[in-house]
Amino acid sequence: MSRGFATKPDLGWSWAVLVASFGAHFIHGFFLTAVGLLQLSLLEHFREDVFKTSWALSIFLGLFSLSGPLASLIVNRWSCRVCMITGGLTVSISHVLTAFMPNITGVIFSLGVFGGFGSGLCYTSSFVAIGYNFEEKRNFASGVAVSGVGIGAFTLAPILQTVSDSYGYFGLWLTCSGLTLQYCVFGAMLFPSRLELERKIKTQFSTIDKDQRREGLFHKLQNFGKSCGRFYRKELVFVYLSMFLCNIGIYLIYLHFASYVISVGFSHLDAALLLSICGICNCISRILVGSAANSSNIDEFVMYGGTFSLIGLTTALFPFYGHIFGGQVFYMVTLGCYSGCCYSLLNSICIILAGVSNLATVYGFVMLFTGIGCFIGPLLGGFIVNNGGTYGQAISIAGILILLGSLFAWGSGAGKRSGSQKKDTEEIIVYRKESEEKEMVMEDIPNVIERLLPDKDKEEGCDPSYLATDKQYCST
Asked: How is residue 319 annotated by DSSP?
């Protein structure tokens, strides 16, 4: 891409990227929030026990996030655009294969492994693209983008349940294939911004330093260890643990809540309606949280820990009121309002704790721990039910895990914050390789190149403005 097309943060094509990210999250919404309807479809079609059937969607949900580090590598090596298009093709093909699998074991591989991997690439790239395209309005943009999850669940849950009722198992999964193919359309809109290009240029120039070329294997491994160490600071570890524990509980609920509704005497359509209520509340809360967190007097970490605490408390008490439809509606409103707020805040939290230059990598680690939680939660629910427990007891245990995760969420904001972000200011924060200190400077790609240009090239009179558009030079 030419330098002239790459937009500055919060301007120009950045808003088209926001639309694309919203559209991708719209599709995510059904496969994250209303995944319980897919579980019902698999249970009814294959007639296997709950635990074995849970493996397919547990792996799917786990890889949705576990593929975050790989997605980060693709984003860092190529772009968010390449990452999402690749993921869209993969997950669409996986749903076609799922429609024709003869047994649940085949579904575990087609849907769980390949579908989860493709969805994870789309999920991470749609989120990281917002961080690269917004600064002043990053929290607001994140809130708008991730609100697509709620709208997607609200819209698609009853539609796809109707498709399932009318066209059966095969019609449902072929429809899902066509739906996920739209990831490719949204991915095509994710042109790199100046922030993304500047970050790549700084990374590329830092790797061709003469001294670094002469380093031995030991020194390189030592540098790699130091680099990884930055991503395991206490505050970041607390973020990882909070997402791990909370997502065990949340995705146990998402996968098994529809089955709980059926078990207490309500219909499939009632379950779809409840998940739709959860979805629309999720949408509203993410926008409100993103807007509120954009204010300079709001602490993201207080909102991060507080929302998890509230959902944990109401979930732990669910068996006392969840047997009536009104109680289920109340719980879905609460779950929708508080369970997804963290995703409006994670961009800023990662940048505050690690800096914008490490956003893709740190977010990949967050998604790794999130994915492990997403994998364990549904299996834990199936294990409890298969061994004499009830869906209500499983949900109550989920609430206890979410409360425990909320303690780590509170702790993540108590330590040192090495990064920063703009709130109601007009400076651009640029992180220099030589120092951990922040500088408030205004600069474009040629300025970055001139500052990082090797001495040899400076002596030869290389023009930074020309090099900014020279793809061959930048790639070397």
From this structure: G
